[in-house]
Amino acid sequence: MAAVTSIRSAETVAEAPGGVVERSGQRRIRQQARAERDVTQVAGDMHVYPPPVPGRSVEWPVWVGSVPRLAAAFQPRTTMRMRASEAQSEGSEVVLSGVGGVGKSQLAGSLARDIRDLERSEGTGLDVLVWTRADDPDQIITAYAEAAEQLRLPGVSQDDSTAAAREFLKWLAATERRWLVVLDDITDPAQVEEWWPDSGAANGWVLATTRRDDAQLSGRGRTLIRLGLYTPEEARAYLHRRLADAGHPHLHNADQADELAAELGHLPLALSHAAAYLINKRRTMTDYLTLLRDTDSRLGDLLPPSADTEGYGRPVAASLLISLEAVEEADTTRLARPLLHLASLMDPLGHPARLWTTPPALEHLRTTRPPQRRRLRRHRPAVTEAEIHSALECLRTYALTTQDTYTAPVRMHALTARAVRETIPSHALPATAHAAAEAIRSLWPALDHQDRELSATLRANTVHLDQHTHPALWRPTTHLCIRLVSSSLREAGLYRQAIEYDEGTVQRSNEIHGPDHPDTLNARHDLTNSYSGAGRIQDALDLRERVLADRERLLGNDHPNTLDARHNLANSYRDAGRIQDALDLAEQVLADHE
Fold this sequence. Notes:
Layout: E1 5-8, E2 14-15, E3 21-22, H1 26-36, E4 39-42, E5 45-48, E6 62-64, H2 78-89, E7 94-97, H3 104-122, E8 128-133, H4 137-150, H5 161-174, E9 179-186, H6 189-192, E10 204-210, E11 223-226, H7 232-245, H8 254-263, H9 268-281, H10 285-292, H11 299-302, H12 316-320, H13 324-330, H14 336-343, H15 359-368, H16 385-397, H17 414-421, H18 429-443, H19 452-469, H20 480-491, H21 495-513, H22 518-533, H23 537-555, H24 560-575, H25 579-593
Parallel strand pairs: 6-8, 7-10, 7-11, 8-9, 9-10
Antiparallel strand pairs: 1-5, 2-3, 4-5
């Protein structure tokens, strides 16, 4: 290994081996070293690396690791690229953050290729490019050690990768050569911190990707760029080009492409698998949408490994849930997984975080939280609000959920939610569904106008909960939340939507309970109210007559529900102009209450 000559740049003398002071030739050595770029300078000391022995010269440029190939029909993500380029020009390192499958590595690969190819074309040259996975420090160390070996750094031994990696970091901090290091898929920022290169000089840049959203990632002057889903335009362009480039433009339908993108939540990874599925199976978008909307279909069938044409290496479900193991290790409350199960049943657009601090939710989480020790299995301590907030923060940190502020709605990508739901044991789903429904019921305002936004959010979440768990909320009886949606729609003046909802409720109740079940009669009663509110007087009157007859037959003349049906029919007679019929029935109602 070549010896290192040390030149102290702060003095006018230089020490040769053996301690002999040399003054002559200093400038010549320094100039020659700089010209050959075999010099590093740290803390005032200039280290000159003499040329390596013959046959061991560095072959420039030095590439370590493989930059991912650009996916078919790659979308440039122009806005995010511009932000990254601006940060680079300002000397800031960039961290691309986002949930699994949004294309972080693809964008990083595109940026790395642009820098490499542009500089080579301009003749300036990128001397060193290192691309390494960063989910394990050992992979970073291995890549850095390989770079140190290719650079022929003095003191580097193949027997000590860690020492070699540290020498590479020192070289990066001091060299005048141009370099780029990409840390792909950081899972633990704390473990990566000591292996993060110093890119303070203008000749080096660090680009990283991660699912995490920690404050640590934006420290030290780094720019954190949150990479989101495809825009509708990007999703549309991707599907059109992907199918056309594969020679199957006939499989593309513009309107259905928008529907397909929406069903997949505009997730790039899912769209890639879906397009490959269409190509491989020669299926139309109509066929695929039918399969996708079937709640019994599993992601592994809809987005199979055989559709991984871009070499992502993981099934979609596994990619979406890869952070779950890390979450459970970091979650000191042991509530993250049961909370994730509950959240996966909610509306992807958001649900109130305070749902999970309601008494029904706290009790469910108390009974489903894994015990810390076997001997404590019988003793399950109460769950506190602080523990709920801690678990939610853990889920946010690992990008399984998103939440703009502490009190903002909690959101989960639709495909992530679907992947989570597939992990819920079938025997546990009914109890989980009922716990979520009870939490919603307990949060519902007594009067909708007291908090219209909350009421609208709870309506949407009840509908999603029912869709994902059907028929859990209908057995043994129909949960009150189902009826609360109906009354809430009417209070909001959304009569057309109320009628559509109630007609569906009547149909499902007929199928599950039968036409004479009290819950079915209640559903028909709600539909009459929606007809009346919408001004469909005759429809309301006809149905109310049938509801009254059925309640008298099944419940008796004096049952409270029968009296209520009689009162409503009197109102319908009045609305229809049948005043005498209305008066007669009203008198009967009054007599019944005496």
